[in-house]
Amino acid sequence: MMGFNKDQKIIGIRVLKDNVIWVWKNDNSAVVVDPALSQPVIEYLKANNLDLEAILQTHHHSDHIGGTRELIKEWPNVKVIASVKEKNRIPFQNLSVSDGDKLRLLNKEVQVIEVIGHTISHIAFHLNSEVPVLFIGDTLFSAGCGRVFEGTYNQMYNSLKKIKSLPKNTLIYCAHEYTKSNLLWALDIEPENKNLKKKLIEVEKKISLEELTIPSLLKEEMKINLFLRADNLKRFSFLRANKDSWV
Ligand SMILES: [Zn+2]
User: Fold this and answer.
1) Model's pTM, two decimal places?
2) What is the pLDDT of residues 16-30, one digit of tens each?
């Protein structure tokens, strides 16, 4: 299933249970974010006559890097961009980056932002354009945030603060379609929250039409994402622990 955003030319390829591989493209070339699998990406790029300029890796989990080796075989000159701290766990990277680095991809400026918590070296890519774009991997989801596997709650809380400081018209492209279950959890915490109720109706409609519920605007996440709205570490920690045990 694919979602299409006309202005940004970013499409989502849904794979595995709930992963979304983002393909950002112009007329000739493409940048792929976190390819869990290679085949659907190869098929899409070939069908649209697109060269693969770069692969962006937000972190090392297999459902984000699983397709990369096969894509390198098809496009041997592709830039594989990943955190310099992950040379062991993302060994095929050939352009290693750190927090604050600026790249030029598809003639646009892309800035690397380190967002530690889900892993100890997770990075995001912020694209400066008319509508700013953030490829955030597993750090933030619509109405949710990533599990804290390797970092600390404090690191994740600070990473969310970095996201909050971005322009509010930033479109957030996360790597999983978790929106509905995140909203159901959030409504358990705040049953009377009207913004959550309204968003759930919108999301259920999109799902019934087999559309993606992402990307979402940072401005909207500031209303419906309890993790972004947590204004201290204690509240964030309560929410994260609660969500971990929520079924
Ligand atoms: Zn992950």
Assistant:
1) 0.95
2) 999 999 999 999 999
